Amino acid sequence: MPATKGSADVPLSPIYQGPLPYVTAVERVPVTVYEQPGDASRAVAREIADLVTSRAAAGKPTILGLATGSTPVGVYDELIRLHREEGVSFRSVVTFNLDEYWPMRPDALQSYHRFMREHLFDHVDVPADSIHIPDGTLARADVPAACVRYEEKIREAGGIDLQLLGIGRTGHIGFNEPGSSVDSRT
After folding, report:
1. What are the respective helix, strand and coil percentages of the chain, to the nearest 5?
2. Known active-site residue 177
3. What is the pLDDT of residue 26?
4. Number of domains, the chain
5. How do residues 113-151 score in pLDDT, each as one tens digit?
6. What is the distance between the alpha carbons of residues 147 and 9, in angstroms, rounded to a whole number?
7. CB 77 within 8 A of CB 153
8. Which of 47, 86, 152, 177 is catalytic?
9. In this predicted model, which residue has the larger pLDDT, 96 or 179?
10. Where are the beta strands (DSSP E) in the chain?
């Protein structure tokens, strides 16, 4: 399946062109290639804003899965701009972040709690009680149960409507490294 760049097709790597035992036609993901990272950030932010606005108009919350790192910063900057300049409201949004370091205080420089406050949450109107980030202050013995509760909260919210991800240089997503089990949990 070709990726799209405007109206021109960009061929995918040969690894994605043949059938693999675990890939079906349903799992092939359309890819759009942008000339500049800012173009991609604006397009993704617009898609998120449109989803949030349409679901709010229907009286439904939008459940966003969010990530940290350099990849989503441009998206967050654009979401802040859309909130300030175009009035996009995040009052009906519920967020679940991918991960947090452990052990980590939420105000620590490397904390994802802090990152998300600085790069998004302190600048838009998402309710504080609708923000979910794993707790990096738990005792080690409490971490497995907290992971189960976190996944339960996602299920109770109705699942994730849109997941924002970055894929690292090694192919990792969050703390899931290449070669991780496909059924690994939180």
Report:
1. 40, 10, 50
2. yes
3. 62
4. 2
5. 999 999 999 999 999 999 999 999 999 999 999 999 999
6. 41
7. no
8. 177
9. 96
10. 3-5, 8-10, 62-66, 93-97, 131-132, 162-163
